[in-house]
Amino acid sequence: VGELKNLEVYYNGYNDNSQLQSFVIKTPLGEYTPDFLILKRKGKTYKTQKEFAADKQKGSIEKVLMIETKGKPFYTEEFQQKEQFVKTTFKKYNPNFEYVCFIDEGKNDFKKHLTKLKEIINAL
Q1: What whole-number distance in Å separates Cα of residue 11 and Cα of residue 28?
Q2: Residues 6 or more apart whose Cβ sits within 8 Å of residue 18
Q3: Eight-class DSSP state of 67
Q4: Average pLDDT score over the chain
Q5: Alpha-carbon gap, residue 124 to 23, rounded angstroms
Q6: Beta-carbon count within 10 A of 67 CB
Q7: Rounded distance between C-alpha atoms, residue 63 and residue 107, angstroms
Q8: How far is 52 from 57, CA to CA, in rounded Å?
Q9: Dihedral, CA of residue 24, residue 113, residue 40 and residue 34, to nearest 10
Q10: 3-class SS at 114?
Q11: What is the pLDDT of residues 58-101, one digit of tens each?
Q12: Within its chain, how far is the Cα of 47 from the centroid?
């Protein structure tokens, strides 16, 4: 998991106060919440997880990668319209945000997407 060194990874789905759960994009079709956020901060490097956890002044955000994992049955027309809004209008006003959606073909197996995800993360 060397690709994630010095990046912050958040899962946007827990209903637990210790987890990220309030990142929402308002679209013309309603709210969109990506599954994961990966943040890259300006000028920050961490040697250990403990050092990261203790850092209260983490620095300003340089890049944000929004990751969506979607089962094919849930990749509906409504979702695709929200996705299009994120890729165009939202990104136009938030150029430091990147977006990627990985679609599962019905087996709940996203392993085939790992190489592409690593490439995207390395490009942050």
Answers
A1: 24
A2: none
A3: E
A4: 82
A5: 20
A6: 21
A7: 31
A8: 10
A9: 0
A10: helix
A11: 678 899 999 999 988 999 999 999 999 999 999 999 999 999 99
A12: 23
Contact between residue 100 and residue 67 where contact means Cβ atoms under 8 Å apart: yes
- The owner of tokens 């995207």 is 120
| Identity of the amino acid at 39 | L
Predicted confidence band of residue 18 (pLDDT cuts 50, 70, 90)? very low
Strand 97-104 with 61-71, pairing = parallel
Cβ–Cβ < 8 Å for 65, 33: no
- The residue with tokens 């409504």 is 78
- Taking CB atoms within 8 Å and a gap of at least 24, the contacts of 27-34 are 27/81, 27/82, 27/85, 27/86, 27/90, 28/85, 29/78, 29/81, 29/82, 29/85, 30/82, 32/82, 32/83, 32/85, 32/86, 34/66, 34/67, 34/68, 34/86, 34/99
- For 28, other C-beta atoms within 10 Å of its C-beta total 8
How far apart CA 20 and CA 9 sit, in angstroms, is 10
Which amino acid, residue 109?
Answer: D
